[in-house]
Design a protein that fits this description.
single chain; alpha/beta; Rossmann fold; nine-stranded mixed beta sheet; 9 strands; globular; binds guanosine-5'-diphosphate; binds magnesium ion
């Protein structure tokens, strides 16, 4: 559910970047932060955990403007990928309006991707999200690696729901904006005041 501030005439949506550890979630957010107009993008907050970076920041998207006079803001989060952080993943998904699943295209990551995807779907169920209508975009990242899985293979394994997918090289900013645009669009389209 978005957070609506009637005094400020602002709607805040929550987007979560989900996926196995090291698939490129943090890199996506860093690139979005770099690409977006700094005036529309607040400071990025990086929370350090022992093994991994987790972070969030929020920004005002360029092209969405306003819905019924309310300005639209997105708060974006990444989740730690490691299995032992299951509790924090649950917490971060709480109240999420949409999710980007970032998969690693390297063939050695097939199982990790699948495990993380299954964990996400289980969390959707426990949060009461409808898996069919819930805003979800898949990003097949690290397409620049020497060895990558076929897109059809990745779809067969991770995308039985037929969600929109994007190929990306997050490190170079490729596919990053396309991904966030699609999930924002799905979120806003679904939302009615
Ligand atoms: N080759 C390649 N490496 C990437 C890409 N995106 C991210 N990485 C690297 O993968 C590692 C993990 O990235 P990070 O964003 O921290 O992953 P996270 O654990 O999902 O947040 C880092 O060394 C990144 O530089 C990519 O598109 N291609
Ligand atoms: Mg990270």
């Amino acid at each position: 559910m978005p957070y609506i501030n009637y005094d400020k005439q602002e709607i805040a949506f929550k987007i979560v970047y989900f996926g196995p550890g090291m698939s490129g979630k943090t890199t996506n957010l860093i690139k979005i932060h770099e690409i977006l107009d700094p005036q529309k993008c607040s400071e990025m907050v990086v929370l350090d955990t022992e093994e991994e970076r987790t972070l969030f920041f929020d920004f005002l998207p360029f092209d969405l403007g306003s819905i019924c006079g309310f300005s639209v803001r997105f708060n974006m989060y990444t989740v730690p990928g490691q299995v032992q952080y299951e509790a924090s993943r649950k917490l971060i998904l709480d109240g999420a309006d949409g999710v980007v699943f970032v998969a690693d295209s390297h063939p050695s990551k097939r199982e990790e991707n699948l495990l993380s995807y299954q964990m996400m779907t289980e969390n959707f169920v426990s949060h009461g999200f409808d898996p069919v209508t819930y805003p979800l975009v898949l990003q097949f990242n690290k397409r620049d690696l020497d060895q990558v899985m076929n897109i059809s293979e990745m779809n067969a394994s991770l995308n039985k729901g037929g969600h929109k997918t994007f190929e990306a090289v997050a490190l170079k900013g490729q596919g990053v904006i396309e991904t966030i645009k699609e999930v924002s669009k799905q979120i806003v389209t679904r939302f009615e005041i």
